[in-house]
Amino acid sequence: MSPFEGIMLVCFGLSWPISIFKSLRVKRVEGKSLLFMGVICCGYASGIVHKFLFSFDWIILLYGINMLMILFDMMLYVHYNRRNSPART
Question: DSSP E strands: which ranges in 1-89?
């Protein structure tokens, strides 16, 4: 276990609640990218797989928590993007 990996995940993890809170507060998702969030989520999933295969330790919880927050933010993105898009005729 590397303490630097834990610090990195905590620092990254602090940004997701802020992003989620903003989406919930303003009910808009302008400036967010579903592709970006998907790439980050893929990175966390890769970290989880690595931990299971090569270096299982408690840090896997931080990967999991961060990934769940991103998935929730992605769900908000889809919800508010559909809700706020202009009606198609």
Answer: none
Burial classification of residue 13, based on how many CB atoms lie within 10 Å of its CB (0-12 exposed, 13-18 middle, 19 or more buried): middle
pLDDT in tens, 73-84: 999 999 998 887
Q: pLDDT at position 77, please? A: 94
d(CA 58, CA 68): 16
The three-point CA angle 28-30-35 to 5° equals 115
Q: How many CB atoms lie within 10 A of CB 40?
A: 18
For tokens 């303490």, the residue is 3
* CA-closest candidate to residue 14, choices 4, 6, 26: 6
